[in-house]
Automatic annotation (TrEMBL):
Upper taxonomic lineage: Bacteria, Bacillati, Actinomycetota, Actinomycetes, Geodermatophilales
One Pfam family, short name: Acyl-CoA_dh_M
Annotated ranges, domain Acyl-CoA dehydrogenase/oxidase N-terminal: 6-115
Similarity annotation: Belongs to the acyl-CoA dehydrogenase family.
Organism field: Geodermatophilus dictyosporus
Protein name: Acyl-CoA dehydrogenase, middle domain
Length: 384
């Protein structure tokens, strides 16, 4: 297990201080009023968080995936919604770096590095998110433009993002189906309506919306990389980043739940002693810490594999699967430790409990992760 460089550790420490000093004191108010965290997102821009995945010559301070994962976990420790605000953005930045034409990179990446332009990705449709190849959103050539029709749903940050990486069919009849899929880089404009902000259990403050494309026109050069039919493979690569990001978010939420539980278990007394000294409560804390540490190691393992440049869907899938299930369990156990206060909206643990399940669904459900893991185990002949 490698350690972060001094510079990268300083980045993580800066974000940790930001979370403790500026996020945690205000998060409950923002959460319960479902307020977009304008000031905190502005601070994240100033701290360079939106540029962490943008290399030179477009950005200044790219960091390794292990560092990025730790920054994500720190943000999620403060408020999962903040980590969400930079999740899709990072995936799109990575897509542009890996597959974009030079014109696309020059156009988008400098502004994305500062956060002046924020980006999101639109994959899921009302008809389903798991079976992406069955998508119905279609872009057809009309002279020098693409004309897009269809609908997307659950697209996070889409009202406030200026750039949307839209997964769509540019050849609906192609066989195999993935050969007809492209990523279009689209902006808000006539023919694109953000039709609804979806009400949510948690993940408050940031918007997740329905998008309707009705005769939306995009220029011919909007196809990522300039070549049609490559979008499915491009996005699957992007999702490796996305899944590490979601796994790191889960670690952050689990860390926050564990921290609160450990503190409370030492402060709260029953039967004349701190509750942690009751074996049942102590066992909960021991199991929470053990699972959390294992989850963190799996995320680090996936992030390090990513850095080698090799395919890491197996590792990212395992990290996302384990870390998200851990977050759900640790959040619930933190409620147990808090007793009645765990159910109170005046404490934070109920928020972790509402935020954690998103990570078992987002960026591909855990059922889909198991499918990816099993396929890769067979393809690689085991764990390798
Ligand atoms: C708060 C929130 C934010 C989101 N943000 C975004 C975003 O920014 N961009 C975006 O594109 N999407 C986003 N999503 C969508 C998310 O990625 C999808 O919800 C997810 O991929 C699952 O798709 P679905 O909801 O259509 O479920 P379905 O695909 O309908 O699946 C329903 C159930 O069937 C199971 N299932 C389906 N197929 C299989 C299979 N082959 N094997 C085993 N089980 C299967 C699933 O695991 C699940 O349990 C967001 C979702 C939420 C809730």
């Amino acid at each position: 297990m490698t350690v972060l460089s001094t510079e990268e550790q300083a980045v993580v420490d800066t974000v940790r201080t930001f979370v403790d000093r500026e996020v945690r004191p205000v998060v409950r108010e923002l959460e319960h009023s479902d307020t977009y965290p304008e000031a905190l997102v502005q601070r994240m821009k100033e701290l360079g968080v939106f540029g962490l995945a943008v290399p030179e010559p477009w950005g200044e301070a790219p960091v390794s995936m292990p560092c990025y994962a730790e920054v994500t976990a720190e943000l999620a420790r403060g408020w999962m919604s903040l980590a969400g605000a930079m999740g899709g953005h990072t995936v799109v930045a990575k897509l542009l770096v890996a597959f974009g034409t030079r014109e696309q990179q020059d156009r988008w990446l400098p502004a994305m590095a500062t956060g002046a332009v924020r980006a999101t990705m639109a994959l899921t449709e009302p008809g389903g998110g798991s079976d992406l190849q069955a998508m119905r959103t279609v872009a057809r050539r009309d002279g020098g433009e693409w004309v897009v029709d269809g609908a997307k749903t659950w697209i996070t940050n889409s009202r406030r993002s200026q750039l949307i990486a839209l997964l769509c069919k540019t050849d609906p009849d192609a066989q195999p189906r993935h050969r007809g899929v492209s990523v279009l880089l689209v902006e808000h404009g006539p023919g694109l309506t953000v039709s609804k902000d979806l009400p949510k259990l948690g993940y408050k403050g940031v918007e997740s919306c329905e998008l309707v494309f009705d005769g939306y026109r995009a220029p011919a050069d909007a196809v990522l990389g300039g070549e049609e039919g490559r979008g499915f493979a491009q996005m699957m690569t992007g999702l490796e980043t996305g899944r590490i990001q979601v796994a790191a978010r889960a670690v952050g939420v689990a860390q926050a739940a564990f921290d609160d539980a450990l503190r409370y278990a030492q402060e709260r007394e029953s039967f004349g002693r701190p509750i942690w000294q009751h074996q049942s409560v102590g066992n909960l804390l021991a199991d929470m810490a053990t699972s959390l540490t294992a989850a963190r190691q799996l995320v680090r393992h996936a992030a390090e594999r990513y850095e080698t440049g090799r395919r890491c869907d197996l590792e990212a899938g395992m990290a996302k699967l384990f870390a998200s299930e851990t977050a759900v369990k640790v959040a619930l156990d933190a409620i147990r430790v808090h007793g009645g206060h765990g159910y109170s909206t005046e404490f934070d643990v109920e928020r972790y409990f509402r935020d954690a399940p998103l990570m078992i669904v987002g960026e591909g459900t855990n059922e889909i992760q198991r499918d990816v893991i099993a396929r890769q185990l067979v393809a690689r002949g085991g764990l390798g």
